[in-house]
Amino acid sequence: MKILLIEDEPVLLDEIETYFTALDFVCEQATTFNDAEQKLRDYIYDVVVLDIMLPDGSGMDLVKKIKQKQIETGILILSAKDSLQDKLCGLNLGADDYLTKPFYLEELNARVNAIYRRKMLKGEEKITFDGFMIEPISKSVSFKNSEISLTKKECDMLIYFVINKNRVVSKASIIEHLWGDHFDQNDNFDTVYVHMKNLRKKLINVSGKDYIKTIYGIGYKFTF
After folding, report:
1. Domain range holding 173?
2. Distance (Å, rounded) from C-alpha 28 to C-alpha 6?
3. In the chain, how many domains are there?
4. What is the pLDDT of residues 109-157, one digit of tens each?
């Protein structure tokens, strides 16, 4: 799962990122309105966790911008103010949830996962297709009730492909989603190819089918 953390309190921001990174989330940070706006313009995230009180703008305006892009990104608002008016404003603008500071990281994780299930998995705990079953939270994959040994990145790649089935996805978009903006795209196309090659081989070995089609010069398409 790829999330954007928008928070101007450095200690809290680092605590949240450390917690989610340990759970194999891909995390990116923004500490100002302008930085967050730029990232939202350039990248797509599964979930955005944002503070409404930023030094150079309001998180509420960022909610508006996310909704204007008409993408399925989930939105969780953080606020030091336990105000009913703020909650209603954020939810009416299109936020999916609202959490008041201080909070337990475990609760934040539970809410982020709930948003992800609603927005990306359409409310399902598991993804199933053609005899396969994927459990995104535990990162486990099975075929006809037999577990398949995938690395975490291979599982993340498979989830990304299935969610974007029948769409052509570029190598750049795969890098952005699975590794975030911490890696230079030009240096990591080989990394994408290696993970994709291994994933394709494992899926073929158990099912006898090749679901990943190479679209030369563009990227890949996952079909079933």
Report:
1. 127-222
2. 9
3. 2
4. 999 999 988 887 776 778 899 999 999 888 899 999 999 999 988 999 9
